[in-house]
Structures are given as C-alpha cells and as structure tokens.
C-alpha cells in the first residue's frame, strides 16, 4: 500500500506517516494491549508513537527539502486518468502492478521472515530479555525490537509472556515501541519507496525512541 | 466539437474518476472489515474477558525460543504467514488498485505536500489499516 501511495507521488512524509502510523497507532492493538498489559502501556505507545512519527516526518521532509516539487518531473497520469483508457487497459495495468508488487515483495519478504524466525534463540535469549537492564541492555532490546518481525498485535503476547517471567518494565516498553514499528522485512518491502538515507534515519529514530522511552519508563515506573 | 459536447465529455471523465476512486474505497472498506475490523472486534472481547490473545509467537508459552536452525525458521514462517496472509493479499490488492484506479492529482492534493498536514492526513488514514 505504501509503495502504491509513493508511486502515486504521495510525499515522502505522508508515505512515512502511513508506514509507521499503521502498526504503531493501530487502534485494535492498543485496545488489546490495554486489556492485557495495562492501559499505561497503550498510553505510552500513543504518546511516544505520535512523537516518533512527527520526528521522522519532520526530518525526512527536511532531508529531501532541496528536491523541490518544481524540479521533479511532472507526475504522469494514473491509468484511469488517461484519455485512451478502457476497461481492458485498466484491467491489464492493474494486473501488471499487482504482479510487479508480488515479485518485488513476496520472495524477499518470506526469506527474511524465515531467517529471523530461525534466529529467534539468538535474538531473544531468556537470560538477556528477562534481565535486560541499564542502558546497554535497553539498547540491545531496542535493536532486536527494531529488526525483528511480528504479526499485527504479536508484541502483546510476547511482552505479556516476558513480563510474566520477570522482565523489567523499561525493556517491555522498549519492545512495545520498537517491535511493531519497523522491521527488516518491512524496510525491505518499502526499499524503493523511500531513499536509503531516509530509511536509515527512520531506523535510527525508532531505535533511539525505544531506548529512550524504555530508559525513562524504567526510572519512573519500576 | 461544440462547447456543450466538451462539457459532456468532461463530466463523463469526472464520473469515471469518481467511480474508480469509489471502487478503491469499497475494496478497502470491505476488505478491511473482513480481514481486520470484524475479527479484531471479536478479539477485543476475548482480550477483555481473558486478558490474553494467544501465546507468544517468539517462544510459545515459555520464554525460551526454539534452538536456532531450519526447524525454528520454518515453524516461524508458517506461524507468521498463517497469521498475516490475508492482510498481505489485501495490501497487495489495495496497492495496485490505488495506482491504477485513483486519479493521481486527487491523491497529490491530499497527500502530495511535503508538510505536516499531508503527513497528518496519511497518519489518520493509516489508523483504519490496523496492519
């Protein structure tokens, strides 16, 4: 969907807001989280999430400021806007876009999920998740959370299980922020929709957001 | 072509564009209802009643993930795509539909600006995606 929006010339900031808002501010996940982990987790995720998205969008728009819209080639028309369109040409264009997306997204997506799934034992060793503390521990948890991929709302039972076994609140907050926001596969999927430096910046902001929010939560809520 | 004919053809064009955009919106609403909104409505009640929505996809009921290797990789891939495949299919359909059936200048007007307003609109729209 993000690829489609960007191909339709939605701005980089809009594309990023959609890309990040979708998982981070997912209302359903926030409700599950409230019932299961506690409403303070949902509140932290909304506040930190909105803040991180605003930061990412602001930096991205600034980073790409020099490419003024005037320099950019005039956007070509979407197939439905063309004079010579017909039901046939639209259907063919639609099939072609669908096929292109499938080829560009699915094989790499599946391979990265496969690799990350196989390495779970190294990414989430109990000793490290349960006893993550201090800046170093928080940084490692945030890094894993930013890289790893989970289904929608998957972070809720993951964090529930870890909290049940004694993980500290700070590390839990770091995971609640970073796990859903982005992942290696999600960055792979949008690799052509955003410039590489914008994606690297997004990675850095989400990672730092998890680290800082986790550290503050640990100090305040422990 | 007379002036009135030009106006006629202009109107026809606009109505086709509107139809295309409505088709996209209909696909999004129906698809998201089936894949996301309705199942999540039920899941929210489960979460409220039982304070759980299943076990951790990383490590099951315990905290130790399975040993690194192909078995763990395959098991995770199956569990993950079992959970997300319908959303992936819907996202691919919506991604190609928005490119072909929604007029670029309408989308530009809404999401094209490099400013906070465009980003806020995009962020607000993304809430319905629940992906």
Compute the number of helices of chain A: 12
Span between termini of chain B: 49 Å
Rounded to the nearest angstrom, the distance between the terminal CA atoms of chain A is 39 Å
Largest sheet of chain A: none
What's the count of strands of chain B?
0
Strand content of chain B: under 5%
Oligomer: heterodimer
Count of individual beta strands of chain A: 0
Q: Rg of chain B to the nearest angstrom?
A: 22 Å
Q: What best-fitting shape of chain A do the alpha-carbon axes yield?
A: elongated
Tell me the structural class of chain B: mainly alpha
| Low-confidence sequence ranges of chain B | none
Q: How many structural domains can be distinguished in the coordinates of chain A? A: 1
Low-pLDDT runs of 5+ residues of chain A are none
Number of helices of chain B: 4
Question: Would you mind describing this structure in some detail?
Answer:
The complex is a heterodimer of chains A (222) and B (131). The mean pLDDT of chain A is 92. Chain A has one domain (2-65, 87-221). Chain A is an all-alpha fold. In chain A, 74% of the residues lie in helices and 0% in strands. In chain A, helix 2 runs antiparallel to helix 4, helix 4 packs antiparallel against helix 12 and helix 9 (155-164) runs antiparallel to helix 10 (169-181). Chain A is elongated. Chain A contains twelve helices and no strands. Chain B has helices at residues 3-50, 70-101, 104-111, 116-127. Chain B has 131 residues and is mainly α. Chain B is built from four helices and no strands. The termini of chain B are far apart. Chain B has one domain. Chain B is 76% helix and 0% strand.
């Amino acid at each position: 969907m993000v690829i489609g929006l960007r191909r339709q010339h939605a701005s980089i900031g809009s594309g990023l807001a959609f890309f990040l808002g979708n998982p981070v501010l997912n209302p359903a996940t926030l409700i599950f989280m409230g019932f299961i982990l506690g409403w303070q987790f949902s509140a932290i995720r909304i506040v930190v999430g909105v803040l991180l998205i605003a930061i990412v969008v602001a930096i991205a728009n600034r980073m790409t400021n020099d490419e003024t819209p005037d320099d950019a080639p005039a956007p070509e028309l979407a197939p439905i806007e063309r004079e010579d369109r017909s039901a046939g040409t639209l259907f063919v264009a639609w099939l072609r876009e669908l096929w292109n997306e499938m080829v560009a997204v699915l094989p790499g997506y599946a391979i990265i999920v496969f690799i990350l799934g196989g390495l779970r034992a190294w990414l989430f060793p109990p000793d490290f998740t349960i006893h993550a503390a201090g800046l170093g521990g928080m940084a490692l948890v945030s890094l894993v959370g930013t890289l790893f991929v989970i289904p929608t709302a998957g972070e809720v039972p993951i964090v529930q299980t870890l909290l049940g076994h004694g993980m500290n609140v700070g590390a839990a907050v770091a995971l609640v922020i970073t796990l859903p926001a982005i992942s290696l596969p999600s960055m792979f999927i949008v690799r052509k929709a955003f410039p590489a430096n914008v994606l690297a910046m997004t990675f850095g902001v989400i990672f730092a957001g998890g680290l800082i929010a986790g550290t503050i939560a640990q100090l305040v809520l422990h | 072509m007379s002036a009135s004919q030009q106006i006629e053809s202009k109107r026809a064009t606009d109505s086709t564009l509107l139809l295309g955009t409505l088709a996209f919106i209909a696909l999004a609403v129906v698809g998201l209802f089936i894949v996301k909104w309705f199942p999540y409505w039920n899941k929210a009640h489960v979460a409220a009643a039982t304070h759980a929505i299943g076990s951790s996809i990383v490590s099951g009921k315990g905290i130790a993930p399975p040993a690194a290797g192909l078995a763990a990789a395959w098991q995770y891939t199956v569990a993950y795509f079992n959970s997300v495949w319908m959303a992936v299919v819907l996202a691919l359909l919506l991604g190609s539909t928005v490119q072909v059936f929604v007029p670029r200048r309408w989308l530009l007007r809404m999401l094209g600006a490099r400013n906070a307003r465009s980003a806020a609109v995009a962020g607000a729209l993304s809430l319905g995606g629940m992906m």
